[in-house]
Design goal:
Length: about 425
């Protein structure tokens, strides 16, 4: 979609066409396109159908707002999920931020959340089409009074009039080719489109850090896998997950926070206390798998202390204890069997218990879950969790049942054991 095709979607005919495609079924697209082209220009029909598909994809991130918003293919993929953007906007608002420069704004997902938090936003991107989309989104959601969209090279923007900065550098090959600055030319590396070298971001991380240091508050969005040694000493890194999936890492400047893991949608947060590595001990009745944000933030020791637990191996991020404790920081499993890894024994045990559905998890094991599943030939009405890992250095298989979340008597989030299958 080019700028002219997008502009056509904003006039009366384009708006009516988009409204008619709200409940469009992609399986009927050929017939729909044929019918609509009898009454509308072919280019407009193509643009509207493409936008309808993007809106349907975007609904997972933006909810009902997606059907009032506009997207590009890269914009849907790279835009921040609403819950994550709202969390970040709330942090900026709590810091007293009133005017913020959003650099590399994309289609405006973060700018929208910031504006809804009462913050005046300058949203900047180099792509004219992307800026047009961001501008249309601000207007569609009634936020154009708080969001100014500017098409420019972010490295040339004067941020002095603002009291905070948010930068989301390009970290994917496709977008990088379009948006990188001259200083980053030829310096990026990508695998499957993803860029792993922070200096290959567009703009480079070093530029973003220097820009962040010029204002009272700032945040830089980086890849979740950023090495801890690449985090500047004056930055407070935060890893954010949503429903257990790690979504991003952010380097905060101008705060007193330490390393932090934030788990959405609950907003549970865990911060570094500088604890030593947890003790290692035998597998207890319960196994806890820390949330990915906790692991990325290197806060397994803090989670273990919260659970009064221990590690099953000094190199494995599994926590165990003999008592069940409520926690937002990990998923609990009740262990039924702890055995040395043996495929023949595992197959016999699952066949005996009539296990037809198994969730296979691995950490510290060379076994591939898909390959193992084919070999197990599961059959039966029951289910279990198979954990392939190491215990005190030895390859081990743990059979378990997930512990469902419930409420404690006090009303706080808790967990209760579930009966084991075929005891």
């Amino acid at each position: 979609m080019d700028l002219d095709a997008f502009s056509a979607l904003l006039d009366d005919e384009g708006q009516a066409l988009l409204a008619s495609l709200r409940h469009h079924d992609p399986a009927d697209e050929l017939a729909t396109a044929t019918r609509l082209r009898r009454e509308h220009p072919a280019a407009l029909v193509s643009a509207a159908l493409g936008q309808a598909r993007l809106r349907q994809r975007a609904a997972a991130k933006f909810g009902d707002d997606a059907y009032r918003m506009y997207f590009t293919p890269d914009g849907v993929e790279q835009a921040t999920r609403t819950a994550v953007a709202e969390h970040r906007a709330a942090r900026f608002a709590a810091l007293g931020v009133r005017r913020l420069a959003d650099l590399c704004c994309g289609i405006g997902g973060d700018a929208i959340a910031l504006a809804r938090a009462g913050i005046e936003v300058l949203a900047v991107d180099r792509s004219e089409l992307t800026c047009a989309v961001a501008r249309a989104n601000a207007q569609a959601l009634g936020l154009d009074g708080l969001i100014e969209v500017r098409c420019a090279d972010v490295t040339q923007v004067d941020t002095a009039p603002y009291d905070a900065l948010f930068t989301d550098p390009a970290r994917r090959g496709g977008r990088e080719k379009k948006a990188r600055s001259a200083s980053a030319e030829g310096r990026w590396r990508a695998t499957g489109g993803r860029i792993f070298d922070p200096e290959a971001y567009s703009p480079p991380l070093s530029w973003a850090v220097e820009a962040a240091r010029t204002l009272p508050h700032a945040a830089i969005k980086v890849a979740p896998g950023i090495p801890h040694e690449a985090v500047p000493e004056d930055a407070a890194p935060e890893w954010v997950s949503y429903a257990g999936d790690v979504k991003e890492a952010v380097l905060w400047f101008g705060t007193d926070d330490s390393i932090r893991a934030t788990l959405l949608p609950s907003s549970a947060g865990l911060t570094s206390a500088g604890l030593p590595a947890p003790a290692v001990g035998p597998v207890g009745r319960y196994l806890y798998e820390p949330d990915g944000a906790v692991i990325r933030a290197h806060l397994v020791a803090e989670a273990a202390a919260h659970l009064d637990g221990r590690l099953i191996d000094e190199t494995i991020a599994y926590i165990t204890s003999d008592e069940l404790r409520a926690t937002p920081y990990a998923t609990a499993y009740e262990i039924t069997d702890t055995l040395p890894f043996n495929l023949k024994k595992l197959k016999a045990l699952l066949r005996e218990r009539r296990i037809g559905t198994a969730v296979i998890k691995k950490r510290g094991s060379a076994v591939e879950p898909d390959e193992l599943r084919r070999k197990l030939k599961l059959d039966g009405p029951n289910s279990c969790v198979v954990v392939l890992t190491r215990v005190a250095g030895a390859p081990t298989m743990l059979l378990a049942q997930a512990v469902p979340t419930t409420r404690t008597a006090s009303g706080a989030p808790g967990a209760a054991p579930t009966p084991l299958v075929d005891r």
